Amino acid sequence: MAVRRPARRSSLAAAEERLLVEEAQRDPAKFDALYELYFERIYYFVASRVRERVTAEDITSEVFHKALANLQSFEWRGAPFAAWLFRIASNALADQYKRTSRERPSSSEENVEELERAPSSRNMREIDEHAHLFRLVDKLPAVQKRVVYERFVEERSIREIAERLKKTDGAIKQLQFRALQTLRARMEGGHA
Amino acid sequence: MPKRSPAEQLNQAIEEVLVALPSRSESKSGRSLAQVMSIARTLRFLPRASFRAALKSDLQRRTAMSESTAASPAPAPPHFRRPGFPNIAPYFLVNHAPQFIDFLVSAFEGTERIRVPRPDGSVMHAEVGIGNSVIEMGDANQQYPQRFMTTHLYVPDARATYARALKAGATPIFSPTDEHPSGDLWGEAKDPFGNTWYIATRKGWSGGPEGVLTVQPYLHLRNAHDMIPFIEAAFSAKVTGVHKSPDGIVQHATIEIAGATFEIDEAQGETQPTQSYLHVYVPDTDAVYAQALRAGATSVTPPNTAPYGDRAATVKDPFDNTWFLATFVGEPHP
Predict the structure, then answer these.
(1) d(CA A120, nearest CA chain B) in Å
(2) Which residues of chain B have a CB within 8 Å of the CB of A40?
(3) Is B153 inside any structural domain?
């Protein structure tokens, strides 16, 4: 995306992440904090690699359930926790692809290898940006947020949204325009 | 041709993105629209808020269940618990108890521990061990009529147990699935006597015979949220995980009494409220009986020393569940 990158991950953030992981290893109820930290990133990583939303949700769910079940086995070996989490996601994507390819024989080995590859540091920065955008949607004014969800998540037409929100087509287009302008400005660090 | 507004131009470009057409509008427009469109392309992957919340709730539920089941069995049984009774035992009052025992043996590889017959051949009391836990039963009578109960079984191989249960005469509700919201491999069947069995295997966890209680009563309640303050006050219970819907409905809770657990949820839809018979060992029957009455329970039988050696009492909770309270007063465990 043509937007300013969020601040580079600092050693402080790494230390905080480590603290969160160690707390969750001692008390699994603290896994919540890791979920909050990583949900958007994992979801984007998965959703941008599969066709169907329902598949993205299934795989995301699988990733977090596996992470929770295997958290005790995670050890600090120089790689951040995120790398471990994305490795689980990459494996889950590859497994899903293999399952699908049994039904669609046209799939190739290269595709599986591509899916099994964990994201590079450049990919990670992009994933961070996209996840940041998802969180910004939550901070939009309520009606703009509703339009964004109706349009991009529910994939409804302008007419359908207008009927549901009891507004004109033009008003919905304006709300959509303002929402996206606001998100762009906030991604660039402004306060639109 | 009239010039289109920026909002119109953006919408045209979004239409093309949403239907995956090569974007003509974007290529003809300026840098500003291109930047906004990069936002729009990412928003196609925006997660549903309801999915985010539901997954979080599932994970919380899983951690709560892990805590409760992992913490429940003590290495050495406490003195107040009769040996071989680690769990809160569902007490089944059924018609045709001998056949019910046969079903438990065949379906769940149960072991008949004791059977006390009446002169007419019916069963006054019987116990069947399943895994590391126990289930009790007897033939229903006027004082204690038949009730249809729900029980959660944790077994090493849910699929094999489910298949055995069907072979023994159970009716399938759904076969064990990895897709269950609990995260466990989970199936459901109804026995020929009208009771429901949740047959589950924990994932990512390798508990030995002492690791997790095999049998856990599962209560479906109307206004389940009211059970929590009652059970805390009546039995000094510890509620280890409560998950509520945004409108306050209890979707699941695991509750511990004196080191053993049971589960509750709100009876909704096809799931009708259950009234269960439950046998629970407590450190001091007399004290818990008095405490339960203060909390709103109704006395059925005041504390007494039963012929088999337990200090026993019976109360009914406001949801019409019957609680057989007991304290083992025999020899200390070896």
Answers:
(1) 19
(2) 47
(3) yes
Give the DSSP letter string of A58-118: HHHHHHHHHHHHTGGG---SSS-HHHHHHHHHHHHHHHHHHHHHHHSTT--HHHHHHHHSP
What pTM, to 2 d.p., does this model score? 0.51
Question: A116-135: per-residue pLDDT in tens?
Answer: 666 666 688 889 999 999 99
Tell if the CB–CB gap between B46 and A155 is shorter than 8 Å: no
| Residue ranges, CATH 1.10.1740.10, chain A | 11-119
Q: Name the residue in chain B with its Cα closest to that of A157.
A: B15
Per-residue pLDDT at B209: 35
**DSSP assignment of B156-208:** S-HHHHHHHHHHTTPEEEEEEETT-TTSSEEEEEE-TTS-EEEEEE-SS----
Q: Does B183 contact A60 at a Cβ distance shorter than 8 Å? A: no
- The reply to whether ipTM tops 0.90 is no
Q: Do B62 and A149 touch (CB under 8 A)?
A: no
| Contact call for B48 and A47, based on CB within 8 A | no
Measured distance CA(B167)–CA(B197) in Å, rounded: 14
If you classify domain A139-192 with CATH, what class do you get? mainly alpha
